[in-house]
Amino acid sequence: MLGIHALAEAARQGYLAMQFNFVVSTNHAAISLWKGLGFSVVGVAPKAFRHSEQGLVDAWIMHRFLGQGDGSELG
Question: I need a surface site. Which of 24, 50, 51, 70 has the fewest CB within 10 A?
Fold first, then answer.
C-alpha cells in the first residue's frame, strides 16, 4: 500500500518518473513488489553490495514512468 501511495503522490505532485538507485539483486521480495508496481531494471551496479551469505552481489537501478492510465493514480 505504501508503494501505491508513493506512486500516486509523486504523480499528483507532477513528477514524471520514479527511480530506485539501489535495489539489492538478492532481495526477491522487494524486486517482486517493484516489478508488480510496474518498475523495470534499467541498470546494474556490479558487486555493489556485500551480502552476509552470498558475498558481493549486484545492485539494480529500477525505474518507471508515472502518469494517467499506468496505475500511478491508484491509492
Answer: 50
Q: Burial of 29 by CB count in 10 Å (0-12 exposed, 13-18 middle, 19+ buried)?
A: exposed
Quote the Cα angle for 8-10-13, to 5°. Answer: 110
| This prediction's pTM | 0.82
Task: Please identify, in words, the CATH class of the domain defined by 2-65.
Answer: alpha beta
pLDDT tens for each residue of the chain, 75 residues long: 888 999 999 999 999 999 999 999 999 999 999 999 999 999 999 999 999 999 999 999 999 999 765 555 444
Q: Do residues 15 and 65 make contact, with C-beta atoms less than 8 angstroms apart? A: no
